[in-house]
Each structure stands twice: as C-alpha cells, then as structure tokens.
Amino acid sequence: MRKLSIIFFVFIISLFLVCCDEKNIDNNDNLIPSETNDNDIKEDIDKEKDIETEDYSNAIFTSNNGTGDGSKDNPCSLRSAINRLSSNKNRIYIIEGTYNFDSAIILNSNGRKDLYYELIAFNNGKVIFDFGKDYRKEKIITNSFNTEKSKGIVIKGNYYYIKGITIQNAGAHGMHISGSFNKIENCILACNGNTGLNISSSKNNPKDTWAHDNYILNCTSYGNYDWDRDTDQGEDADGFGAKISAGENNTFDGCISYNNSDDGWDLFTKQKTGAVGSSIIKNCVAFNNGYSIDYEELKNGNGFKLGGRAIEVDHTVINSIAFNNKANGFDDNSNPGTITIKNCTAYNNGKRNYSMGRFLEDNDTYNSTWYEGNDLIGPIYNVPKTHHVFENCISYNGGIKDSFSGTAKNCYFYNVNGKYNVFRDLAICNSKYNLGVTYDIFNPFESLNFELNDLENIHYLLRNDDGSINLGLFLKIKNQYSFGANLNN
C-alpha cells in the first residue's frame, strides 16, 4: 500500500510539471523561433556574410586626398586610378568628397561591350568634381572657351560607365564625349563655361566614326554659361548637346536641363560639316533656359532645339516637357526633316510653345546668311516643306501662336486669345493652311504651380529614388484627357 502511495505521488508531481511547461509555452510563443523565423535568421546571417565578403577584387578606390595603393582602406588619387584601369581592374569607386582639379580628366582607353570601364560614386555618396572656374565669382573666364584642357571630363574612348558624379565649374564643357557606347547616369553638370554635357567628334573625322550610341540617363544640367564670348555672351552654353559632328543614336532619357545661357538641348547642324546623326530624347524636361541662375536674361533660350541651317535630320522626342523657356519650347530651328514629337507638353514659353513649321510651302527658301570660318553660306533655296509628326501633344498658354507642319493626331496647338487649333483624328497640319478645329480656352492640368526657389537642388527635389523624374501635380494631365507628357509618378 505504501508503494502505491509513492507511485501516485510521483505521478501527481509529474502531471503538475507538465502542466507548468505547457503554460510556459502558451505564454512565451514569441520566444521560441518557428521554422519560418529560423529561415529568416539564416537569411539575415547570409546577408551579413555577403556584406562582409563583398568582392572588390575588380575595384580601385579613390579619395580626394588618396595616395595609397587603391584598396578600400588605402585609396589612391583619381588620376592614378584611371591609369590602372584594365580588364582585371575595370571599376573605380570614388569615395564621397569634393575633388579639385585644374585640368581636364581625359579617358582615352576602351572598355568592351561585356566589360565597361566604370567610375562610380561609392555607396551613392556625394561626389563633386570642381574645376575651379566659377563664373558667378569671376564673371569673366578668359582663354578657355572650348579648349580641351579647360573641359571637365573628356571621354575619347568607348564603353565607359559613369554614375553619381557632379561636375562643376569647368572652363568649357562639363563633360565632352567623342567616343561611343558610353553610359552616363545620375550625374549633375553645373555652372560650366560651355555646354554641360556635349556629344561631338572632330569635324575632320569620317562621319561613320562620329560619337554614336551614347546613353545619358537621369542626368541634370543647369547654370552653364559661356562668359568668355566677348560679343556673343552666353550663345553656346546649352544643358545638353549632340551637335555639329554627333553620330547616330545618341539618347537622352530622364534628363533635366534648366537655366542654361543658351538652350536646354541643342542638336545643331552646320552646312560645311554636314548632317548630324539622329538623336532620341525621352522623359526629359527643359525649363528657364535663356536665363542665368540669377535670372539675368541671356541668349536664345529654347527648350529643345532640334536642328539648324535647313538641313534634314530625323529626330525623336517622346514624353517630354518644355516650360518657362525664354524663347520656344520645341523648335525645329529650320530642320525640314521628320521630327517625331509624341506625348509632349509645352507650357508658358516666351515665344512659341511649338516652333515646328519653319517651311510651310514647297521649295521654300532659308533666307539667312552666315559665315562658317571665312566662307559665306546661304541663302539656301528649294528647301523641302517641313513634314514633322505630332501625336498626343499639348501646347498651353504660349507667348505667340504655334507654327507646325506635317501630320497631327490628338494634338492641341496654341493660337491667339486663348484659342487652340485641334487635330483629333490623324490629319495633315499646317499653321498656314490646315488649322484643324478651333477650340476655346481650357485647362487640362491638375496644377500650374511650380516652386523655383531652390534651383541648385532640382536634381534631388524632382526625382524618385530610382532617378526618374517626378513633377508631382505640376503639369499633370487631368484624367479626362489623353494627350501630353506623364512625368508625375
């Protein structure tokens, strides 16, 4: 009987302990990792290992005072890093800081389609290349106009990739590209003494070697101003250019150009040099061109200048916006070729929102005369009638009425007194003979308010995390309309 009592007592104690354990489990579920939590922890550990063991074997590190071997812990100078580029060391990581230079950075070597030579801001740090020619302080920059030594970055080679760098205060172009198959991403070209980023080659080179297939992505160019032109102050400094001797298929995507002394974009062509290659501009914005950062009134001030000298070149502009430019928003600049303008918005430009019909008659005449070197050129006779293509375009509140010639579909061109020339269905358009249907004043936008107080930070204020442009409600098309650009997401 005593033995049975002991067994029973042990049983009761065991049952009590089991119950306590179950209660503890119920009250502490969060302390016991589930199978899913185990996997999450493993993934976190793996990520930490990846960070700790990131492969920098192909990288050279540079800092603004570097004198080392180019390792992450002992960076070298930028020029030293450039000299070390090879198939085994094809990437330069540029550590955050301001780098001061007194002469151009010239990139002569060639990468490959499968192995670009790369110059990248490390960890998205703020990297500034300052070339010391601040026109806002000096007012006049002498003996520097367009000379190579006074430029910022000069890319003569092919297959370079440059990302995340601000290039400022160069005496001439901020960046000049004469090579091909280069990609420039998320860079800022600010306050240089000529065009912020220009694509062109030597005019003496064969045309099939001119700079081609360069891709400019999510870059911003502003405040560029060629002070040293004594009689034509400000006439050459555009935001972006692919002009005079630029080859085929250069593309600008997601770029912003503003407050440059001349034009936002310039695709100019000369008679003696011959037609430039066709360029593509998409998802871009041009505003306030023709004015300095301090709003001094300067030179031409077109948003998108798309030609020159009555020479036929086909260009394409898609989903882009021109507003508040001193002169025209979209200007063919006497180019009678086929320029395709699709899903574009022009608003409040000083002259025409669309100046896209210089030649409205067959066999028209370009009456201008000019010198190229010592040679007098022009006038030019028997210029073909302009035949541009317009689709889903809106012109709103221009300085004077638009000019246009070609074909139009779902387009609204600005006329006078708040009237519009409307082409809903595909039709021949000509601002002299084929004016479409007259439409009264209307407002297709969610907002016409745009804050311009912080011009030096537009690159950061008007972009999403991925670098794409976001104008918020400004010039956002109301839902009931199906024309115009969409840069509001």
Q: Please tally the helical runs, counting DSSP H or I stretches of 4 or more residues.
A: 5
Through-space gap between termini: 85 Å
Largest sheet: 22 strands, mixed
Tally of DSSP β-strands: 39
Strand content: 25-35%
Mean pLDDT metric: 88
Radius of gyration: 30 Å
- Uncertain runs with pLDDT below 50, 5 residues or more? 1-52
Q: Overall 3D geometry?
A: globular
Structural class assignment = alpha/beta
Helix content: 10-25%
Question: Keyphrases for this structure?
Answer:
globular, 12% helix, alpha/beta, disordered N terminus, 489 residues
What report would you give on this structure?
The protein is α/β, with parallel strands linked by helices and 489 residues long. 12% of the residues lie in helices and 28% in strands. It starts with a helix and ends in a 28-residue tail after the last helix.
Helix-strand layout with pairing:
Elements lengths: L1 H26 L7 H18 L6 E4 L15 H6 L7 E4 L2 E4 L4 E3 L9 E5 L5 E4 L4 H4 L14 E3 L4 E4 L1 E4 L6 E3 L5 E3 L2 E3 L6 E3 L15 E3 L2 E3 L17 E3 L7 E4 L2 E3 L6 E2 L12 E4 L2 E3 L16 E2 L9 E4 L2 E3 L6 E2 L7 E4 L2 E3 L6 E3 L7 E3 L3 E3 L2 E3 L2 E4 L4 E4 L2 E3 L6 E7 L1 E4 L5 E4 L3 E4 L6 E3 L18 H4 L28
In short:
With 489 residues, the protein is of the alpha/beta class. The protein is built from 5 helices and 39 strands.
